[in-house]
Amino acid sequence: MSGNILLVDDDPNVIEILTESLRSKGYETRSAADGNEALVAYDRFQPDLVILDVVLPKKDGFEVCDEIRARDVHRDVPVIMISANSIQDSMLKGLHSGAQDYLKKPFSLKEIHAKIDNYLTQAHRKRNLREQNLQLEDEVQRGHADYTRINRELKKKILDMRSLFGLSQDLNRLQDPEELIHVFCLTVVGQLGVGSVALFYAFDEMDDYLSYIGGSGVSNTVLKSLRLSREIALSKFLLGKQDIIRLADDEFPRDAKREAEFMVRFGLDYGYPLIVKSHLIGIVFIGGKVNQQDYSPDEIDLFRSICSSAATGLENARLYGELQATYLSTIKVLVSTIEAKDAYTRGHTDRVAEYARLIAEEMKLSKREIEIVCFGAALHDIGKLGVYENILNKPGELTEQEWEIVRSHPEVGANIIKNMKFLESACDLVRHHHERLDGKGYPDKLKGNEISIGARIVAVADSFDAMTSDRPYRQAYSVEEGIDQLKRQTEKFDKDIVGYIEKLVSTGKIKR
């Protein structure tokens, strides 16, 4: 893809990296280091897209974006804002200024390339649509009958384009692959009136095969057993075509024709490749329309655009998944370090994390809330890294001074992880899992609803496992005795959460 891109950032390193990367992809670039210079460059260069830093000398990015929008009355030039600041607040302000998207530094070149390609494609279609609109307005003057027909077509195109823009934004925001696939399939069915759709994809970039990951109106059981090679047969043919193909055509090589005929037997008539940076990452198969009519050229174009957005969204979801895997590996290393110091709690962290997850799921918390609970539970005792082994493993009762050291571990733990960006959301749970409802806990003596729901969940899970585990100073309670102890201590524990763990025990989901 080609186009003119204006890069605005006062950091020469960012300008240099983006310039080299984008020029290697065929783009022409110009750069500016402050707000005033950016507007001069915009007027002279007439870019197709602007990458704009928020923090700039003379005029900040929001002011520059406002002035660009004043010049670009049709909003033909997409603006992607970048910043190292808090993404939530700045993103809202940036979007109000007219930016299409917002990226937080440091960002992935792969991600920004995907967004640039996507927004330039959308901008090109938008300009074409406006030109078509002008042509249609001329035709209106030629007759009322033509006007009615053309106006109806225009409205449908605008509706389709709005749906496409909305889908593109949704798929770029969604980080859960399952939800993303569900939205994609619903969109294809709803927008095109398709009777069946099947998506094959490879979540692992190194996987040699595409596997069925979701669809509608097809036999999931059979398709889940099917794998398509990424290098040969139908995949190779589609990568070469890079466009929608009719599976019943006779132009396929023998090996590709065999796979195509197999798909036709399941009511799938067309195949379209999902391609990111010249690599095949998936294939979308669709059947005919429910109303038995042929697909119009506009519908085929809409299908291509939906698939393009899905490819970008799936790639973003895969990258996010890799990042999450790195986070989990880091947590496991930290947990093993904790348990290496305290022989009596070996396995305690894993059990508390499992109990907390089950409670959060039973409470129907959101996926993000469950994720935070799991992180907080897995790290709730990380502050014990600052507690001496002879105290942790002391067989007798602790002195008051030793208890003070032990009671410092929530605060120590929160301080350890507070500067780890990917763990900061769990900081509250680590710091407050020893608070009590009556305000007599530690370290902050929070009371009642001042304690977050996540911290209350971890408190119950932690205490339940401690009660039902052997300790140097006592033997373990039975599960029933542990639940009874939790129910008695209403001044400490949330009775509703205790009720959830009691239910999990009674249904056999929690066993000791």
- What is the gyration radius calculated from CA atoms? 29 Å
Biggest sheet: strands side by side, in what order?
8-7-6-11-10-9
Secondary-structure class = alpha/beta
CATH architecture field of the largest domain: 2-Layer Sandwich
Q: Could you please say which CATH topology of the largest domain applies here?
A: Beta-Lactamase
CATH class of the largest domain: Alpha Beta
Q: By CATH's scheme, which homologous superfamily of the largest domain applies? A: GAF domain
Number of strands: 11
Q: How many distinct domains?
A: 3
For this entry, give a set of tags:
single chain, 512 residues, alpha/beta, Rossmann fold, Beta-Lactamase, Hypothetical protein af1432, 3 domains, six-stranded antiparallel β-sheet, 20 helices, 11% strand
Description:
The protein has 512 residues and is an alpha/beta fold. It folds into 3 domains: 4-107, Response regulator (Rossmann fold), CATH 3.40.50.2300; 131-318, Beta-Lactamase; 342-506, Hypothetical protein af1432, CATH 1.10.3210.10. The protein is 55% helix and 11% strand. The protein has helices spanning 12-24, 35-45, 61-71, 87-96, 109-140, 144-173, 177-192, 220-224, 233-241, 254-264, 297-341, 348-362, 367-378, 389-392, 400-407, 409-417, 427-432, 453-467, 479-488, 495-506, and strands at residues 4-8, 28-32, 49-53, 79-83, 101-104, 197-201, 209-216, 227-229, 245-246, 270-276, 279-286. The strands form 2 sheets. A 6-stranded antiparallel β-sheet has the order 8-7-6-11-10-9, with helices on both faces. Helix 2 runs parallel beside helix 3 (61-71), helix 5 (109-140) runs antiparallel to helix 6 (144-173) and helix 19 (479-488) runs antiparallel to helix 20 (495-506). The longest helix has 45 residues, at 297-341. It starts with a strand and ends in a 6-residue tail after the last helix.
